[in-house]
Automatic annotation (TrEMBL):
Pfam families: HTH_28. Belongs to the IS150/IS1296 orfA family. GO terms for molecular function: sequence-specific DNA binding. It comes from Paenibacillus sophorae. SUPFAM superfamilies: TrpR-like. This is Transposase. The lineage of its organism: Bacteria, Bacillati, Bacillota, Bacilli, Bacillales. Residues 10-57 form the Insertion element IS150 protein InsJ-like helix-turn-helix domain.
Length: 153
């Protein structure tokens, strides 16, 4: 992972310059060589998480299935924007929420993170006919790859 360009205290100082009116967002982006989107993300994270929101994360956050479902429901019912939802539930990013929405819309279950289940493992040799049967099984079960993998073991 590349080294972050700015440490937490530097990010806070840049946000402070903007908040005090010393510099505008556009000028700050140009001056510090970052995008306006990055500045907006820093502002949002600082507002929701405080100083910790500007720190570099070394591990992924974990969310319960219930939280994922409620966040998706809040967005899809039209009451909140994606940014409002990620702030309300303290979700790491809009991209994460978008992924859950896509899963929900494809009728996949929203499950809690289970510690990195391995999808790809060293498999056994299969014949051409077995491969065809596996594909047919997978297609017949709405592309449920885990169920298919368990079935063929």
């Amino acid at each position: 992972m590349p080294k972050e360009k700015y440490c937490t205290s530097e990010k806070l100082a840049i946000l402070g310059e903007i908040a005090s009116g010393e510099i505008g967002v556009k000028d700050a982006a140009k001056k510090y060589g970052i995008t306006k989107t990055t500045l907006a993300k820093w502002r949002r994270r600082y507002k929701v998480y405080g100083y910790e929101g500007l720190e570099r994360r070394t591990h992924n956050r974990s969310y319960s299935a219930e939280l994922k479902f409620q966040a998706v429901k809040d967005y899809l019912e039209g009451g909140l924007s994606q940014y409002q939802v990620i702030d309300k539930y303290k979700i790491a990013s809009r991209t994460q929420l978008s992924h859950w929405i896509k899963q929900y819309n494809h009728h996949s279950s929203l499950t809690a993170y289970s510690g990195g289940a391995k999808a790809m493992t060293k498999g056994r040799s299969t014949t051409w006919q077995e491969r065809i049967d596996i594909v047919h099984y997978c297609l017949a079960h709405q592309h449920d790859y885990r169920k298919t993998a368990v079935k063929i073991r």
